[in-house]
Write a structure and sequence with these properties.
402 residues; alpha/beta; twelve-stranded mixed sheet; globular; disordered N terminus
């Protein structure tokens, strides 16, 4: 049932009585707020088997978590985060260290699952995620196109696909104004060899690499649905599933949905590969992310212990064995498959972790608000980058980072 729930919007999952799949019967009412992609559906479903648990799976979770965790008591006891969305919660001091609970109930966790900040375990990672190349192998084979390894090759393939008229739009892209669009620039700018701030937290994007990143994004957008500024991960996933696009750089967590017979018209046709390089010979234009769980600080120790135990039930071997293709899991029992090939190749080819920090959070916001001005023609590239840097500087000075 969970696999067939619509991916867009907010999903609520509530369980009162414990099910047979949980090792204990939870007596403490617990709530979780996380993203809504397939991996979180699998994890929250396993947590629900313990009873007295409610999950809110919402693609806008990152905007809701800071205030919800700042409440006393916290409105959610468990949070689903990534290496980027963890930063605001750390800055606010609204999540609790987990070392005592790991010692008591997490002996099975692997070292790379323990996310340590200043010597304390602040989150438990469950999976790695990256944007990587997804493509219609049947279309590329018919047109004699090899899987692209650079963005110049992606553009050449897009031109051939457009001329053949086999899909509505050759490319898809997560270009929705805001967080998604900023992430696309982050990927491309890193792929060009760029950085975002210097050692004194001053911006470093208004340069040749930043200009090249914007220009490449605009060239790619010319082959997308004209409404690309509202296109998020769910939008692109559904474009693939409905046979409307042939190539996209999309999150690994969306790969399994391509073969979901209940909602996909392209089962067996979409293949995965490493994210393309922005410049031939350089690392992929993508970033590595982890997703995992945190616990709110503002709850009792008894509630925290119950929440941690429920969370561990959600990210155990049994869950992975039942949902192997939903993610590239860090958990015992995971077996790599063709669905996870793209993420693994992207990592092996040198993609770097997202450079999460307080400064990067402000830069990401400024990028999300400003990049569209260039894509729509409202500003030229240099002015766009200058205005983004100015917006970042204002925010960084207000936050005391400069």
């Amino acid at each position: 049932m969970l696999k067939r729930i619509a991916l867009a919007g907010t999903i609520s999952l509530f369980a009162t009585g414990a099910w047979a799949g949980c090792a204990f019967e939870n007596q403490t009412p617990l709530k979780m707020l996380s993203a809504g992609f397939a991996a979180w559906k699998a994890v929250s479903g396993a947590m629900a088997e313990c009873g007295n648990f409610e999950a809110e799976l919402d693609q806008e979770f990152r905007h809701k978590q800071p205030a919800a965790f700042d409440a006393n008591p916290a409105l959610y006891q468990i949070g689903g985060v990534s290496n980027g969305t963890l930063v605001p919660l750390l800055n606010q001091g609204t999540i609790r260290p987990l070392d005592d609970l790991v010692a008591k109930h997490g002996q099975h966790l692997k070292p790379n699952q323990l996310i340590r900040i200043d010597g304390q375990t602040m989150a438990i990672a469950m999976m790695v995620n990256a944007q990587h190349l997804m493509y219609r192998k049947d279309i590329l084979d018919d047109l004699g196109i090899a899987a692209p390894t650079t963005y110049e090759e992606v553009l050449a393939a897009a031109e051939t696909i457009r001329a053949a008229g086999v899909v509505e739009y050759p490319l898809g892209g997560t270009y929705k104004t805001g967080w998604n669009l900023a992430q696309e620039f982050v990927n491309m700018h890193l792929g060009m060899g760029g950085a975002f701030v210097d050692s004194e937290n001053r911006p470093t994007i208004n340069n040749e690499m930043g200009l090249a990143a914007l220009e490449m994004m605009k060239r790619l957008a010319a082959y997308m649905d004209p409404e690309y500024l509202v296109s998020d991960s769910t939008y692109v996933q559904q474009q693939f599933q409905q046979g409307k696009i042939a190539i996209a750089n999309l999150w690994a967590s969306r790969a399994g949905a391509m073969d979901d017979e209940g909602e996909s018209q392209v089962v067996g046709k979409v293949k995965m590969a490493s994210a393309p390089a922005a410049v031939a010979g350089r690392r992929p234009a993508s970033t590595l992310w982890w997703d995992g769980v945190v616990l709110a600080r503002n709850m009792s120790d008894d509630a925290a212990e119950a929440a941690f135990r429920v969370a561990m039930e959600g990210i155990d071997r049994e869950m992975v064995e039942a949902n192997n293709d939903a993610a590239v899991w860090l958990i015992d029992g995971f077996e790599a498959t063709p669905v996870s090939r793209g993420a693994i190749e992207t990592a092996n080819n040198g993609a770097v972790p997202y450079p999460a920090s307080s400064a990067m959070g402000l830069m990401h916001t400024a990028l999300g608000n400003g990049v569209s001005d260039f894509l729509t023609g409202a500003k030229d590239a240099a002015t766009t980058l200058a205005d983004i840097e100015a917006a970042y500087l204002t925010a960084a000075e207000e936050q005391g980072l400069i």
